[in-house]
Amino acid sequence: MPDQAEPLRQLVRASVDDQIAGNSRLIAVASGKGGVGKSNIVLNLALTLADRGSRVAIIDGDLGFSNLDILLGLRPQYSLQDVLDNRIGLADALTEGPRGIWFVSGGGGETFMEDQSNWQLRRLVEQLAEISGRFDRVYIDFGAGFGRHTAELMGLCDELLLVTTPEPTALADAYALLKLVLQAGGAPRTRLLVNRVATVSAGMDASRKLQLIVRQFLRLDMDVLGYLLEDAAVQRAVARQQPFVLSEPQSLATRCLAQIAKNVLCEHPIEPSERQGIKALLRRFITWR
Ligand SMILES: Nc1ncnc2c1ncn2[C@@H]1O[C@H](COP(=O)(O)OP(=O)(O)OP(=O)(O)O)[C@@H](O)[C@H]1O
Ligand SMILES: [Mg+2]
Predict the structure, then answer these.
(1) Which residues contact residue 137 at a Cβ distance below 8 angstroms, ignoring those fewer than 6 apart?
(2) pLDDT tens digits along 27-84
(3) CATH of domain 6-288
(4) Which of 99, 112, 174, 231 is most buried by a 10 A CB count?
(5) For ligand 2, a single-atom ion, which residues have Cβ within 5 Å?
(6) Is 171 helix (H, G, I), strand (E, B) or coil?
(7) Domain regions of the chain by residue span
(8) At CA 207, angle to CA 250 and CA 209, rounded to 5?
């Protein structure tokens, strides 16, 4: 039977080798349970990293329930859905936010990543490759709810930033998500961030529990990226539609984010090998579809 994907593979191979100048690190931000703080974390982390010289973009992968634009108080003209529907390129859908970060909003339609066709997923991957040279890090905020497409996409990323709160339900759901990503064939480096902790030691307790069961049952070693304390500054910032690192630079939450950003930047440098970054994502995509 002829392989219908072969022309695509040839096209992607050509673009990988000839057209992509740089190679961003692609990080999936995900949780099992919804509402644990992913969007606030990725936005404020991006701003903190930008302040330290990183070139960062955020893709709001929460199609239909776009939150980044609301958290920033901005109304971009285009959304990720416009990109997926081939109305515009990802590079042109990017909107500049504070401190020179760039983002694409998820859009306000009633669609989910799971509703996207193979063709649309392919387009997403190709478009990510096109912007690769512009950024050091590209975060995809996956929003709540997931299925096969999202688990596969997460698994194709270089890194999975798994966000949870210390609640047993959130920990159980984080475990379930990780299991799905692994079952979908992905094996991204996984880093855990525990949000809304009363104390750092409560965060350490929660992360130890999850690390233990993940190691025991999924045979995966998971790093801890850090802890974010419960802080009313987060809620005030959401209400003001201003990221807390900007509106409340002295807050506890901002200080936690500074430590988290430090951990991001202090991670072992990644060899610029073929196996890393969005170029590698394209290569993995070729064998996946
Ligand atoms: N560290 C914190 N301290 C206090 N409140 C917090 C903290 N982190 C998050 N919150 C609260 O949780 C709410 C949800 O956060 P956020 O929208 O970032 O979660 P999410 O995981 O992106 O949600 P979804 O799964 O719906 O995408 C915030 O609006 C805020 O009220
Ligand atoms: Mg969100």
Answers:
(1) 24, 25, 26, 27, 46, 49, 54, 55, 56, 57
(2) 999 999 999 999 999 999 999 999 999 999 999 988 877 789 999 999 999 999 999 9
(3) 3.40.50.300
(4) 174
(5) 38-39, 67
(6) helix
(7) 6-288
(8) 155
